[in-house]
Specification:
Strand content: 15-25%
Number of strands: 11
Strand order of the largest sheet: 2-1-3-10-4-11
Distance between the termini: 71 Å
Radius of gyration: 22 Å
CATH class of the largest domain: Alpha Beta
Structural class: alpha/beta
Number of helices: 12
Shape: globular
CATH superfamily of the largest domain: Bordetella uptake gene, domain 1
Order of helices and strands: HEHEHEHHEEHEHEHEHEEHHEH
CATH topology of the largest domain: D-Maltodextrin-Binding Protein, domain 2
CATH architecture of the largest domain: 3-Layer(aba) Sandwich
Helix content: 40-55%
Length: 319
């Protein structure tokens, strides 16, 4: 009996110690890895939220930019980190596109646990002012002259490239692709009339649209842009598949304790709801869209499938 009692006491001690350890989370600084350079949209979101989350969690949150391979280097680093809630990933739409373009040493959906969808940055289909006046007129012209109307992108395999291929799939039209190395020269050439169209994050071209240098044909996202309320969404034009814009979320290594995931989810939502954080995001054309971990996981699964279909149908590679 004495031995049995000792074992029971020891077991209870281990359990209570484990519970105390979880309850103490976090007891050291937390790192958020971003797979893109400083100043990018994901970086803006993380740096706006981090100080407020840090206050609530009682620990410093360190932002680490780890660019490369379309953010896959950063994602891999988090996927292989200890599943203890101290290394997180600021995930993006690139992470659901990359599995179809690269042979990755990790599985984004399986190796990274969803915490929350955080925000999205709406995108636009913009045209040179001399182009067709409406989206429907553009589609008709592209069907009449397959491949003659060309769109610019920020590079092969980027989301701005895939938006063009999604457009072809969704409309039955055929617009040709002209890849650039980054978006700056693509915008310059569009304004000069060297290309007809561009799929791009809204924040990079709104001033040009407002000044009349470019024409916005449709918004990619759940709703119209506050800065361009007259521009319809693709969905309003009857074209499906463009409801999700450039999204950003928060992930942890798979196996991270459920209690930790739930705590991080709550604090992320709390930070996004603060007026000072909201102001920073909205000023950069970023819309907060928090949700549950389960909904984010389902979204990741469907987004991976969507881009796999587009990549296959378009015969796209990252070269």
């Amino acid at each position: 009996m004495k031995f049995t009692s000792f074992c029971l006491a020891a077991a209870l001690s281990v359990c209570s110690g484990s519970a105390a350890s979880q309850a103490a989370y976090p007891d050291k600084p937390i790192r958020i890895v971003i797979g893109f350079p400083p100043g990018t949209t994901g970086d803006v979101i993380a740096r706006a939220m981090a100080p407020k989350m840090s206050e609530a969690l009682g620990q410093q949150i360190v932002i680490e930019n780890k660019p490369g391979a379309g953010s896959s280097i950063g994602a891999e680093a988090v996927a292989k980190a200890p599943a203890d809630g101290y290394t997180l990933l600021l995930s993006t739409i690139a992470n659901t596109i990359n599995p179809s373009l690269y042979k990755l040493p990790f599985d984004f959906e399986k190796d990274l646990a969803p915490i929350s969808l955080l925000a999205e940055a709406p995108a636009l289909l913009v045209a040179h002012p001399s182009a067709s006046a409406t989206l429907r007129e553009l589609i008709a012209a592209a069907k009449a002259r397959p491949g003659e109307i060309q769109y610019a992108s920020s590079g092969n395999g980027t989301v701005t490239h895939l938006y063009g291929e999604l457009f072809n799939l969704a409309t039955g039209a055929k617009i040709g692709h002209v890849p650039y190395k980054g978006s700056s020269q693509a915008v310059t050439d569009l304004i000069a009339g060297r290309v007809a169209l561009l799929f791009t994050p809204a924040s990079t071209v709104v001033p040009h649209v407002q000044a009349g240098r470019l024409k916005a044909l449709a918004t990619i996202g759940r709703q119209r842009l506050a800065a361009l309320p007259e521009v319809p969404t693709f969905a309003e034009a009857g074209i499906t598949g463009f409801e999700s814009a450039l999204w950003f979320g928060l992930n942890a290594p798979a196996g991270t304790p459920r209690a930790v995931i739930e705590r991080l989810n709550r604090e992320a939502h709390r930070a996004l709801a603060l007026p000072e954080v909201n102001k920073i995001l909205v000023s950069s054309s970023i819309e907060p869209i928090p949700g549950t971990a389960e909904n984010f996981g389902a979204f990741i699964h469907s987004d991976i499938e969507r881009w796999a279909r587009v990549v296959k149908a378009g015969g796209i590679s990252n070269q």
